[in-house]
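Data deposition worksheet. Section B asks for the primary sequence of the deposited chain exactly as it was used as input, without tags or linkers unless they were present during the calculation. Section C holds the resulting structure in token form. Section D is free text for depositor observations; keep each observation to a single sentence. Incomplete worksheets are returned to the depositor.
Section A, Depositor: J.P.
Section B:
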Amino acid sequence: MSDAIDVRPIPRIETPFAARLTLPGSKSIALRHVVMSTLADEPTRLLGVPRCEDVDAMFDAVQRLGTSVERESRSAMLTPPAEPFESDVDLDLGMSGVSLRLLLAHAALRTSTTRFTGHRQLHQRPNADLLEALKTIGCEIESNQGRLPIRVAGPASPTARTTLATGVTSQYLSGLMLSAPGLPSGLAIALQGARTSASYIGVTTTEMARRGVRVETPDESTVVVSPGRYTGGDVLIEGDASAATYHAALATLHGGRITLTNLGNSTRQGDYAFLDLCERMGAEVSRAADQVTIKGPASPKPVGDADMVDMPDAAPTLMAMAPFLPAPTHITGLATLRVKECDRIACAAKELRKAGVPVEEFDAAMTIHPADALRPAGFETYEDHRMAMALSVVASKIGGCVIHGADCVAKTYADYWEDFDRATGRVEAPTMG
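Section C:
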């Protein structure tokens, strides 16, 4: 697609809105269930599959690994191979860092060679700590100093214990946990260092339990998964809490009201806690088991300090809201943002400054000050879907802005711009009485 087409003008939202939206299914949960389905005792039908490039990349990869995938609209039927698939295979994961980490661990189950590559952005993502854990299990590894391209050959006799440094991303641990039931003796994982994005490990544990596999934690530094098979059957994927943050932010900043019909307080997704921040800003949040309504205040209140360590994907959304709050916002817990699709601290600071926002940048934190005289800007996305969606929130308050590279939202939320228009009243949407 040409650059001329891949530009999105964002007019200022002038009046409050009221709408209902069904979120895309959680990308994180969907990717976990795809991996589990390759190790299930019978076929699995996934319902609520999100339409996004990360899921497309994962489906393509597991098909190359021998699993049958039949997709229809927002569902998919996955049938694992009758016999272990042991041919050498090349996997291109595009820009999906989660898929890469989950499938690197999955490669330990195969005695043949799995070669990994992807988009140039993915080549910059670190994997060294996970590769060290796989070496301990017995895998043969070749890599570019822990980065792509990577070759993994699984062991004939894997060990049942390994050690994992957990300071970079929780995706390493999730990958090992999800594939551990496929090892002959399961896996005990000794954890070292600080824990990052711990809420995602809670999601992994919960979703594994839904499929009949228990995760044991005999102490705070040990995770144990016994050998076994996941159950198949029907699995419903709930709405994506990270996607919900953009709509919640729009409602909060514009005094709007939005109901999200497939995400509720039964979720274990860490980004659901973003709604607590909206409440601190004065929004009214009505929670039910399977839906939530956010009604924005007449004028948002300050939040002061906000620790995003357990919801890092929601941090760019808070950055987008901070210039419109009446006092400085100090955002901490951002260490993992340096190694996402882009450096989400440095890049966010650069784009906010274009519009006249005063920003202080630190190693793992930011302070964003209120801005009285904002100016229209042409925002860059750095091919990062979360930058694009967060910048739409900023632009909706300023008016006259354009977002270059807007189509990168397809990585996780292909329908974002259509939902943005429906939610904010730019096209007709079901309204609330």
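Section D:
Residues 429-433 have pLDDT under 50 and may be disordered.
Residues 241-254 form the longest helix (14 residues).
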